[in-house]
Every structure is written in C-alpha cells, then in structure tokens.
Write a structure and sequence with these properties.
Blueprint lengths: L5 H14 L1 H33 L6 E5 L6 H12 L4 E7 L1 H11 L18 E6 L5 H9 L6 E4 L1 H42 L2 H9 L4 H41 L8 H32 L2
Helix pairs in contact: 1-8, 2-6, 2-8, 2-9, 6-9, 8-9
C-alpha cells in the first residue's frame, strides 16, 4: 500500500489552489478584508479605552489648610492623609505653586507678590483615590482631620465619566462581536463555493475508496495556506494604514492619545494568523461535510 507523507498533501493543496485560482483569490480577498476590518475595529476600541482611561485623572479630592497654618501643621495634615484607606497618591501644592496656577488662568493676580499671599493663599493637597464606591467615606474622614478647613471632590463628575466609559465600551464590544460573526459567516461560505466547484472530484475520490482524511487533508491545508496568506497580507495593510493614522493623529491632534503600533504589532500578527488559519480550517471542514457524508 502506498504511503503518503505530509508534503504530498501540501502539494495537492497547492495544486488545488492554483487550479481554482479565481476562488482562491476570492477566499484570500474576503478573509483579508474581514481581518483588516475586524483588526481595525479592535484597534479603535483599544484606543477609545486608552483615551477614556485618561478621565481617571478626575479621581481627585483637593483639601485646603487654613491660610495661616504653620509648616508643622501642614506637614502633619499630609501625614494623616497618607494613612487613610482608598488613597493612591497625595501631592502637596504650596502657596507659591497655587499662585502660579492662578496667574496662568487670570492676569488679575499678576501684581501679587509671594509675600502678599501668606495671609490669604492656603496650602493644599491633591489626593488621588482608588475606588469611587468609597469616596464618601474618604470625604468624611478628611473632614475629621484637624487642620483641614475645606474639602473639594469631583465624585459626581467622575461617576458620570465612569458610566459613560462603561457604556461606550459595552456598545463597541458588542459591535465587534457581531462583526466577527459576520466575517466568519462570509469566509465559511466563500470556502464552500471553492469546495462546490470541485464537488465532482470529491465524489469520484469517494467512489474509488478514498478515506475521509485522505480527501479532507488537502482541503485543510488549502484552508491553512489561504489563512496564512490572508493573515500576513492583512497584517501589512493594517500596519500601513494604522501607521498613517498614528502619524496624522500625533501631528494634528496632539490632545488625543494613540497606542503605538510597535508595542502591539506582535499581538496583531499572532491574532491575524490564529484567526485566519482557524477560520480557513473550520471553513474547509464545514464545507466538506456535505460531500463526505454522501
């Protein structure tokens, strides 16, 4: 009995791909397009999440000491704040720094000297907290500290931004899942067309006693080859387009952060190859099922 090695089936797969060149090109084009669209949308979601995370800067509480508080009293307040739960970071803002910030916003205080601010400009602490759920408790604890006369927080605004972030990400993730399902459906049907074009060949092989795996393996390798070609081509297209957008964003829209493609290129390539090859194999198996069961 003649034995067939792996290279025989790969050769048969390549022969089948070249013999059905139009369908092969269609399968590669559809798979590549779906990978580019799905990958592009995934990168869009990633960058939206990155920019929404910047709103975490709103997770701050500002506390003020009395204007005439001594250096020892201000230092003691800072030490007590650091001991509280739900505190991620504490930054002291001196009177001079506070005056500089005020002067940046308005020219009314341009003539005010550092000596004049001692009587009315308070020292303050900017506190970054961890959990929105426990801000009320932290706010109460801060008000109990001796040496703090005013507490400002942005809890309402931070909670609104957090809800907006969750809602936007949920919508985009659902849309991404739907897009992936549509892409797989298109690819499977494209592979089915390729198998349908060779239905007579499959039927003849079955009639002469060929086993299911003998018939299936070349088509599986066809799916793998199609997936690899489409994945690599789609990756380079994604890299080029994303690089162009990244350059445009960093030049014209500097207020928007964008993830560098270099930091995620290996993940994108691995995902493209994994999805492309898996889809090619699944599409071939599904498409062959009808003819192997005859």
């Amino acid at each position: 009995m003649r034995r067939y090695n792996l290279f025989y089936f790969i050769g048969q797969a390549l022969h089948g791909l070249f013999r059905n060149g139009v369908m092969t090109f269609a399968s590669i084009a559809v798979l590549m397009s779906c990978l580019i669209v799905t990958g592009g949308f995934s990168l869009l979601v990633l960058n939206i999440d990155l920019n929404l995370e910047q709103f975490d800067l709103l997770k701050e509480i500002v506390v003020f000491c009395p204007p005439l508080a001594t250096e020892e009293e201000v230092t003691a307040v800072g030490e007590q704040i650091k001991k509280l739960d739900n505190v991620a970071n504490v930054e002291r803002v001196t009177k001079a720094e506070a005056l500089a910030d005020v002067k940046e916003e308005s020219d009314v205080y341009d003539d005010v000297t550092e000596e004049q601010i001692q009587d009315y400009m308070p020292e303050s602490f900017v506190i970054t907290y961890i959990d929105n759920e426990r801000v009320s408790t932290l706010d109460y604890q801060l008000k109990q500290i001796e040496g703090i006369y005013k507490v400002n927080n942005r809890l309402d605004l931070a909670s609104t931004i957090e809800s907006l972030k969750s809602g936007v990400m949920l919508i985009f993730i659902w849309f991404l899942a739907v897009l992936m399902l549509v892409s797989v459906f298109i690819i499977v049907n494209t592979v089915k067309l390729s198998v349908f074009a060779r239905r007579n060949e499959i039927s003849i092989m079955r009639y002469v006693g060929a086993t299911g795996w003998f018939i299936t393996l070349p088509f599986i390798f066809e799916g793998i080859i199609i997936g690899l070609i489409a994945s690599v081509a789609g990756y380079f297209v994604e890299w080029y387009v994303y690089g162009y957008i990244e350059k445009m964003m960093t030049t014209d829209l500097q207020m928007i952060s964008i993830v560098g493609f270099g930091s995620i290129s290996h993940i994108v390539l691995a995902a493209f190859i994994g999805v492309g090859v898996a889809t090619g194999i699944v599409g071939s198996m599904i498409s062959l099922g009808k003819y192997l069961n005859k």
